[in-house]
Amino acid sequence: MVLALAGVSARGATTNYAGLVYSGSPDASTKAGIFDISVSANRHFTGHMTIGGRSVGFSSRFDATGAADFVVKITVIEDCAICDPGVVTTETHKLWNVHFQLSPGGESLSGGIHFRQGGFPDGTISAKRSSFNGQNKFAGAGKFTFVFAGSGDAANTNFPTGNGFGTTSINSSGKVHASGMLADRSTFSESTLLCDDGTFPVYAPFFNGKAMIQGWAGLTNGSALDVTGDVVWVKPDVAGRTFYPAGFTNDVPITGSRYAQSRPLLNWTNGVVIFQGGKLSSPFTNFVTLNSKGVVVNLSENQLALKIDSSTGRFSGTVTPPAARESISFSGVLLQNVNGGFGFFPNAPLSGAVMLGPAGL
Question: How confident is the model at residue 23 (pLDDT cuts 50, 70, 90)?
């Protein structure tokens, strides 16, 4: 019996899937990744996969049972800049054996990956269907802001006190674009798909694939469509690294909000900006006002400049701690569902937390 690919019509429409590759290795960052595929009505598919710092395209075909086994070919470029003359060689290696298996209804995809070279342990694959397109539109399209939760503990020197942050746009066809910054100043950007259950995969490699974030984020039920999720943040133990050189592996909650470029951006006028953690000897607070145009005015004696980008919900600025001579920079995002903003300030080798909210926070 031929497996029916739910969501694929006889007229030749395609079905899309987005998912993650989970590593079987304790050194997960270099063997984990993300992928997406597009399946035609005749069960042929094309896709794109990123593992560590390496990205490749591939294509194959599901059989009548919804299974597919194929080899991903990796192109490795080897060069010698100091050779005379310079030597550049391009070699194609068959490195990854991949197995896909569609669920009976076509709503999900599982499987595994075997790394034929390099001694990597086998990995597992998990993906979900994305049925959104020009005809089946996602009604909740729009902009969202989110934070990666920090420890919130100024005494914790093993993990950032402050919050990483990002912004996401999801269009009516289910295309997701997310970008942001972790609390060690690592930046990320990804494009993926919103799955039918309202979730999307999150993955970004850092430090040439030796570090990463990986997990699932999604939209909550109800009209608000807030953002929630969890990622694992793997940062290697690398001597000489500017922030947290001892490294860590932590599960990090994601919380976020739909973002609207409204007036006012937040529902208060008199507010505070609180700084804590990092290498500060003690927390301090600046009193501010926020007008209907999103302009922040500092009311405290120590210098503070804070600017909100009303188009994205991101904010950034500088502050001089009381009795200090040098200023520190900070950045973050607004979360309109909690009427405030969250972010971090780099204070190498640590980073601290910044919080923006109504007076009395």
Answer: confident
Pair of tokens at residue 171: 């269009």
Q: What is the CATH number of domain 15-130?
A: 2.40.160.90
Burial call 38-56: b when 16+ CB within 10 Å, e when fewer? bbbeebebebebbbbebeb
- pTM value is 0.89
pLDDT of residue 64: 94
Tokens of 140: 């909740």
Same fold, 142-259 and 270-358: yes
**Separation of first and last alpha carbons in the chain:** 62
Q: Report whether the peptide linkage leading into residue 349 is cis, meaning its omega lies within 30 degrees of zero.
A: yes
Amino acid at 133: N
CATH number of 270-358: 2.40.128
pLDDT band at residue 134 under the 50/70/90 scheme: confident
Q: What is the gyration radius of the CA atoms in the chain, in angstroms?
A: 23
Maximal C-alpha separation, the chain:
76
What mean pLDDT value characterizes the chain? 88
